[in-house]
Specification:
It comes from Aureibacter tunicatorum. By secondary structure, the chain is of the alpha+beta class. It is built from 13 helices and 15 strands. The chain has 2 domains: 184 residues, C8orf32 fold (Roll), CATH 3.10.620; 93 residues, Sandwich (Immunoglobulin-like).
Length: 390
């Protein structure tokens, strides 16, 4: 009886083990030679990352990417993760989906990670927290990469080196640059955007960063976290119509199988995404209440500066110059810098000034001469246009 029981247990175990071995062999047999090589050469502590990329990569990458390419991205991503305590503490699922990936959209697959880590690690070496690291990258990306916003860029879906070689990029190209800068030092980042605004024509893409369990939005032209010119438009998104949703990229498929619509090629369906529309509507409502508080007895004053009044509404005619506003007693009431040509046309210097008062607006023109404009504030909103060459 005892021998019969032993035989039964042995057969039972074989019956369990063999199918699992067969399954593993079947999975391995479907791998390309390059994928097998990558899995063989990656260290055991980084194997989960390699398996993640191979499992969820688009079919186009499955056919094209070499083992060396994948190994470089995986090894450098793990090195960045191990370099700082704030990076080590990022949850595994966030690291895999939002630090490790080598691309965001359909951009050319480049080996950007080593160059970007060399460029950006110096900015985060003294960061004690993830938020400090985020701000350090955001505040230095533009100067480090020397790429400016321009509709004259060669194409919308530029990879990092493509943007850096010409020095120009659209909002999409700038977002790719910033996401890769964040990821290169171990910061979780992804691209967010909408294919269509509800209140006006056009689309826009920007960046989100993960800090201690919360996703915050930011841009290449940094103001602050969860603060950007487009929030008013994003807050008007229509949650009932996919054309007007706010999307956030994901390397692996999301639970509701959403895809990020790429306006330059709507046939592409392999960019996975999360629908984050409701979050932006919620943030907008909260910020809108804050703005209402700012407007209590005050006027919203938007200030633009152009070179001259010949073609003042052309973006390339804009001038970035410091502007200060004083009351009649000489007390500073507001200051800031007007938007530069390379910044988004919707980004405007804004101040909130008490109504029924007279102010002096001051700036220096192209000759260095101090110019003074008198503002008699009595209405709710003003659009002030200044000319630098006068």
């Amino acid at each position: 009886m005892k021998n019969i029981m032993k035989m039964f247990v042995a057969l039972f175990v074989v019956g369990i083990i063999l199918p699992s071995c067969d399954k593993k062999n079947n999975e391995n047999s479907s791998l390309s030679p390059e994928h097998k090589k990558a899995l063989e050469q990656v260290s055991q502590d980084r194997r989960a990352g390699m398996e993640f990329l191979i499992k969820y990569m688009p079919d186009r990458d499955r056919e094209e990417l070499s083992a060396d390419y994948l190994l470089e991205h995986v090894n450098l991503a793990y090195e960045a993760r191990n370099a700082h305590d704030w990076a080590k503490n990022i949850p595994e699922e966030i690291f895999l989906n939002d630090v490790l990936p080598y691309a965001s959209f359909n951009e050319k697959r480049e080996s950007w990670r080593r160059d970007f880590r060399d460029r950006f690690s110096k900015y985060v070496n003294n960061s004690q927290t993830l938020e400090e690291a985020v701000r350090a990258i955001n505040e230095n990306a533009k100067e480090e990469l020397e790429v400016i916003y321009s509709t004259e860029r060669p194409k919308p879906d530029q990879a990092p080196q493509e943007s850096m070689s010409c020095g120009l990029a659209s909002c999409t190209g700038l977002s790719v640059l910033l996401v890769d800068a964040f990821r290169s030092v171990g910061i979780p980042a992804r691209i967010a955007g909408t294919p269509n605004w509800t209140q006006k024509q056009g689309n826009h893409n920007w960046v989100e960063v993960w800090i201690d369990g919360v996703w915050y939005f930011t841009e290449y032209y940094f103001d602050d976290l969860d603060q950007a010119w487009f929030l008013n438009d994003a807050g008007q998104a229509n949650p009932n119509d996919k054309k007007y949703w706010i999307y956030a990229t994901s390397f692996k498929p999301t639970s509701d199988s959403v895809h990020f619509p790429l306006v330059w090629d709507l046939d592409i369906q392999y960019v996975n995404a999360e629908n984050v529309t409701d979050r932006y509507i919620s943030i907008y409502k909260e910020k809108n209440e804050e703005e209402k508080a700012k407007l209590d007895g005050k006027a919203k004053v938007e200030i633009k500066m152009f070179k001259d009044n010949v073609c003042s509404q052309i973006g390339d005619n804009r001038v970035s110059e410091e502007v200060q506003v004083f009351d009649k007693d000489g007390n500073l009431q507001g200051e800031g810098v007007t938007s530069a040509p390379e910044e988004d046309m919707n980004k405007i210097l804004t101040m909130y000034l008490a109504k029924n008062k007279i102010y002096n607006l001051r700036y220096k023109n192209s000759s260095g001469k101090l110019k003074v404009e008198e503002l008699n504030i009595s209405e709710d909103k003003y659009n002030i246009v200044l000319f630098f060459n006068e």
